[in-house]
Amino acid sequence: MRDAASAASHAIQFTRHRGLTEVGADELLLGCLQALSRFGIAQFGPWTFDLEVLGVDWLKTPARTGESAKVAYSDETVVIFDRAAHIARLDGSSDIRIEHLLVAFTNEETGLMGELRRTYSVDNAGWRLAAAALPGMPAATEGRIAAPAASSAAREFLTPEEAAEALGIHVQTLRAYVRSGKLPALRVAGERSLRVRRSDLEKVLEPLVSEKP
Predict the structure, then answer these.
(1) CATH assignment of 1-146, given 1.10.1780.10, 2.120.10.30, 3.20.20.70, 3.40.50.1110?
(2) CA distances from 112 to 18, 92, 203 (A)
């Protein structure tokens, strides 16, 4: 399944296999390439990436949910998700797709992206063009902007997705705020679902202080 959710899932698996506690930018980029690949080969625009050369054991069976320690997204990865969310909005989409994630790496100069630039002569315009050429969403959903439930504006308790939309940030950024304690959250009894009180959203907002000349 070649979508952003698949890329994130692969990234989490790479992080667990490497014994790390946070999904870094390198793992997320590898997750994107894995989502595009077949038999360990990812064809992206004019570039052909062998995942084995990039250190990925593509034959390894993914761990099932609950078998490995939980991992979180690093601050660097949250920034990339936020950038991808902005790119998605410019693209007229309410959902982040894999091409949006890939374009979010365009200006990265370090880590795996820097290595790809040096080894494969990756350039910014070619990278964006390759992302734009990826197959779009199925016709039934392509271009559709998912609207929030009509009653969400009146509800006091919001899902993470609704709370993130209210703040204009990516849901992974909001979850990072919850994990760090910046934003209080509640768990639905007997479930893993989180709820955020609407009145608490202001706790992650800070006044803008103008820089004096």
Answers:
(1) 1.10.1780.10
(2) 15, 29, 35
- 56 closest CA partner among 80, 73, 36: 36
Please give the structure tokens belonging to residue 165. Answer: 């939309």
* Structural element, H or E, at residue 136: none
Which class for 208: exposed (0-12), middle (13-18), buried (19 or more C-beta within 10 A)? Answer: exposed
3-state secondary structure at position 189: coil
Give pLDDT, residue 29: 94
Q: Are 98 and 4 in contact (CB under 8 A)?
A: yes
Residue spans of the domains in the chain: they are 1-146, 152-204
DSSP-derived secondary structure letter, 38: B
DSSP letters along 47-70, please? EEEETTTTT--TTSPPPPTTSS--
Give residue-wise pLDDT tens across range 168-185: 888 888 888 888 888 998
Q: Count the Cβ atoms, other than its own, within 10 Å of residue 14.
A: 25
